[in-house]
Amino acid sequence: MTHPIPIRRDGPRPLLLDLYSCAGGAAMGYHRAGFDVTGVDIAPRPNYPFPLYQGDALEYLAALIVSGEIERYAFVHASPPCQAKCALSVGTNRSQGWGRTHVDLVAPTRALLDVTGLPYVIEQPNGRAKIRKDLWLCGEMFGLGVLRHRNFELGRWTTEQPKHPRHRGYVRGYRHGVYRDGPYVAPYGDGGGKATVPEMQTAMGITWTDVREELTEAIPPAYTQHIGKAALTSLRPWTVAA
Asked: Which GO biological process categories is it annotated with (predicted)?
């Protein structure tokens, strides 16, 4: 069941809440699609390009629900930390003695999002926390220099799955001891042929942060620009902003 997105009382663009926002890769895409964005992150994010509340995302969302302030928002995006289901975090790392326990925040995030009554998106990488795979996106769909496959659970709305183009080659770097060149870079880690900070910025279309940790966690804005435009087309009765 879907519902029209209301117009904010103080402006013509609908307001989107960006939970677990990191440096704003997702936020920038939604902004370009036609939303105004406010973010929430537990860590200080001076590079975040929009208004940001530093604090616990679940506590902040719960407070918005209790106060009724959640009604100011039209849409919610959430990218809960994914390390709880990451094979490297819970497998290889721990077997070597340097992994650590991570809390799975997807289920409690979903529970609160359902209470809001708003349309929402939950994002996770492939192979991480279990979400409905309502939509999945790849950098090749947008001509990017990364593959960065991501899954999206869509709450209270839906959209069509775009066709997945054939990859043009390998991701550059070492894998199982073999080095391969290719048109894509690996936007995570360091060494072994992985991307430099400038390469990650170019490959994902992110220019406002040069912090490696923020770039390795980022969603390319093209993904959420696509999602945002689809949401606005599906859910609101007026023309999508150019």
From this structure: methylation
Which position has the token pair 């993904």? 223
Measured CA to CA, the distance from residue 145 to residue 125 in angstroms comes to 17
pLDDT confidence tier of residue 27, bands split at 50, 70 and 90: very high
Contacts of 121 by beta carbon, 8 Å cutoff, 6+ apart: 75, 76, 77, 78, 152, 153, 154, 155, 224, 227, 231
Query: CATH: 3.40.50.1820, 3.40.50.150, 3.40.720.10, 3.30.2160.10. Which one for 15-159+218-235?
Result: 3.40.50.150
Domain boundaries defined on the chain: 15-159+218-235
- Report the alpha-carbon distance of residue 183 to residue 169 in Å, rounded: 6
- Partner residues linked to 53 by β-bridges: 40
pLDDT of the residue at 238 = 43
Q: Give pLDDT, residue 5.
A: 54
Give the span between the Cα atoms of 229 and 137, in whole angstroms. 14
- Give pLDDT tens digits for 83-128: 544 444 344 334 434 344 568 899 999 999 999 999 999 999 987 6
Could you identify the residue written with the tokens 């406010």? Answer: 38
| Among the listed residues 173, 164, 167, 174, the one whose alpha carbon sits nearest the alpha carbon of residue 199 | 173
Could you read off the pLDDT of 43-64 as tens digits, one per residue?
999 999 999 999 999 999 999 9
CA dihedral 205, 211, 216, 222 (to 10 degrees): -20
| pLDDT of 241 | 41
Name the maximum alpha-carbon separation found in the chain.
57
1 has a pLDDT exceeding 90: no
For residue 120, give the H/E element and its range.
strand 120-125
Distance from C-alpha of 136 to C-alpha of 181, rounded to nearest angstrom:
25
